[in-house]
């Protein structure tokens, strides 16, 4: 569904990604791990169109989307959910969700499109008329995901869904992502902390300094001491 | 007492025009971060449209038909201007490019007005008779402009909170990246915001034409007073612009009444400096004066 | 100034060469019409040359100081009008009038500078634009003093008398003024103040950490602009022989601003080319169609902005530079620096604390970024500061460098309480810093980028510049915009070395460096500590690098120090391991 080949990108002239290759199948959940500054968010922002790659291709369902604008990439079926539970603060929950499908001209059956998300996150259903800024961080993350859900993307990129969220709210969010993937959506999740999303991931890759250092199933990586060494900057020690 | 009434009536009438210009600033600013310097001259262009199309003794029906046409013509013009303004924004001198292109557009309209007008100052006649308020004759255009300002405020409020396109426009002003990630076409929405600002100044210029100076040098004064209104209310806030407009109108007409009409802009300048020094975010503004 | 003039090397270097071309053009534009006996063109070019000198100082104000003023026409006008009022209406003569005119121009120019301390960008633009709108209205309104819309005729005998060849004293004065303005701008850029002004405009926070007070430089810029504009306003009176409110309408201010941007913001020759195009094209082509001039001039401005977004001269220079750039980009090599036989500058006084932070607290709204941090950095040490995203590392660094004051707590630098110091005072105490994104100024040469650091050094003769003297020539001719990221990083660190600051705060210096570059960087860190006796506080994500170079490490989590000690101790600490790998409750 999504295939990255030898992707290079950076901020301005700061190189961050140094040749990332990665493929994600429909319905697969891939977790991207790595220490601070490894380039995980940069990778998602590059695939999402916010950073122009300096080299490499991004194939989405057979078409190269590298260099396209974010809004056009979303229209082609790849949706990036930014980190920091970003929603539109003065708009209501209902309107925030509605805007997720606005690019299709706004004709949608709200209950049908948003139903599964609202069933999973009953707090949102209760607060449909509230402004998004009055939600807790966790509810805002749920809202951001619900907004992405109504867009019905083929590929979902999710940047640190657990960031700044009460621990108790993380399981329903992960469960929602797991069910979503079962519908055939490819999902890439970035997390800083190793354990959080490993349980729902089919596969995980560990990034370090802009490159993929390790890749394997959740089980394989759980027992691999190299993962911790990469996180602690001890991997290069002789 | 009578003096105060004159000041209030004139101030509210003029303030309504400032409020309308202020709101038209906000619409574009919220969507793009651009302040369109040509907004004042575009308002005068709306007045020129009235001058060219309305007969010496216009009928109410004719006026009602021409009003939306004026708004649409101006909307088309401003949309084109917006497209031109947004065109070079990818280059290395971003800010200066829009300062220049919107100012240049303003200068061009000034030039066009100069050609039309020559040196005589023509007047536009209103189909509505003035009315008496506590013994004072009030031109209908003052009341109509005030009504229009309130109508536009309500319309913009509904647009930004009810309609999907308006919500999308609010969204890009609140979080540009999140809006792009949601698939909203930013460039199109920005051009649309220019068009809406054109609807506002087009209708405002047409309605206020009988009490406006339709001259090549009046646009810059309207742009300045409209900006002061927007700054007092807090850039980006339409309610702020509405209140700010009436405030500027009443305060400057007080000055004009007591010291002479030449001092009206000077007082507006003093207000602007005062607000920026003491409360840069304005009455209802969100962040402080944004640094560019 | 004399040294600076020598430095610009008039025949080489873009600024000097452009100034020289400008002077030749100004002289030619006035001398040729005089010799040809064309009174019309002589007059036109005298006027346009005066406008050029105003635009030159506006160029300095806009691109060197970053101040948007749409009101320079009012400064120009008040100088001219004061000459008319004092000289003619009050019969005090041209000289007294000119003195009063200058005083008025400087006063108004400084009035513009006041809001500039508070607001920037288009807010400032609008304030000054409004002043330009109001100025001619006041000339009319105060007609008891100004003669109102009738204006004031002014004759200055002597200045306008033609010699045998047709030359007038005023023509000479105009040539001298315009040439002087161009020369001044070129020379000013090579001065310490000139460099610091550009730094303050490009990055106020970087400027403050280099000991610069941006507000003072804004004032200086407005003063220079007022003086240049004022003198031009004085000379305008004898050239025209008449002042009226009509001449000083807002259009004039917009004309000056347009001239700068259309010519090419920041280019020495830009204002001249811009003013010529804007003044001459509509006037020459539409001579018989005076009503169409305003439209013509707006369209010219709009078209040039769309075709040459960097201005006419700017776009040309860009192409020229791109063409030349293919030949060579100098390499900023550290090798001969690291191998230089340096006498150890200041052997670290052992065991004294260079930085002591106690009880540092800082909140942003609801969020507590620092919740009571204690930190002590020993002089002559490399001290690592690590922690997850959002743990407060950069907030702490900003507090120590004075960019974001603490809510409570105390910061001592070498024993001095610096808690309430602004960044430029902390810089004076010897704290230098770098930023996550290197603050390299692309409009200056590589050498000038280093000089900014040296400008902040207390001795003005820092060791580094002497060591690098042989690179001065090639680095003076190249701009850093083509340097790769790692080289920009090194350049920024060399700049802070050049400032002779004994305490260095480095914010994620290894981000974006390749493995080899990281190794070089580690060498540089040790060199700074061992050979130059610098104290270094380094915030870094790359733990590998921190383990390699740091003497001690503090670990921040959620605004609190959770561990502190030597590297071995820290990376064996289970709490730290859990923190970085995100193993919950490990």
Describe it.
The complex is a heterotrimer of chains A (238), B (292) and C (586). By secondary structure, chain A is an alpha/beta fold. Helix content of chain A is 32%, strand content 25%. Chain A contains nine helices and ten strands. Chain A has helices spanning 40-47, 70-75, 93-100, 110-120, 122-126, 137-149, 170-182, 218-222, 225-231; strands at residues 2-11, 14-24, 29-33, 55-60, 63-64, 78-81, 155-159, 186-190, 203-208, 211-216. In chain A, helix 3 runs parallel beside helix 6 (137-149) and helix 4 runs antiparallel to helix 6. With 292 residues, chain B is mainly alpha-helical. Chain B has a single domain (2-125, 138-278), classed as ABC transporter involved in vitamin B12 uptake, BtuC (Orthogonal Bundle). In chain B, 73% of the residues lie in helices and 2% in strands. Chain B contains eleven helices and two strands, in the order ααααββααααααα. Chain B has a two-stranded antiparallel sheet with strand order 1-2. The longest helix of chain B has 31 residues, at 2-32. The N and C termini of chain B lie far apart (46 Å). By secondary structure, chain C is α/β, with parallel strands linked by helices. In chain C, 58% of the residues lie in helices and 11% in strands. Chain C contains 26 helices and twelve strands. Chain C has helices spanning 2-8, 14-36, 39-64, 72-89, 93-118, 121-141, 143-146, 169-189, 192-202, 204-209, 214-240, 250-264, 270-285, 293-307, 312-325, 335-338, 393-400, 423-428, 446-455, 463-467, 472-476, 485-498, 515-530, 543-549, 567-572, 574-581, and strands at 152-153, 242-243, 353-364, 367-378, 382-386, 408-413, 416-417, 431-433, 503-507, 535-539, 552-557, 560-565. In chain C, helix 8 (169-189) packs antiparallel against helix 11. Chain C is elongated. The mean pLDDT of chain C is 86. Chains in contact: A-B, A-C, B-C. The A-B interface holds A 48-50, 69-71, 74-75, 79-82, 86-91, 95, 98-100, 102-103, 106, 144, 147-148, 151 and B 161, 164, 167-168, 170-171, 174-175, 177-186.
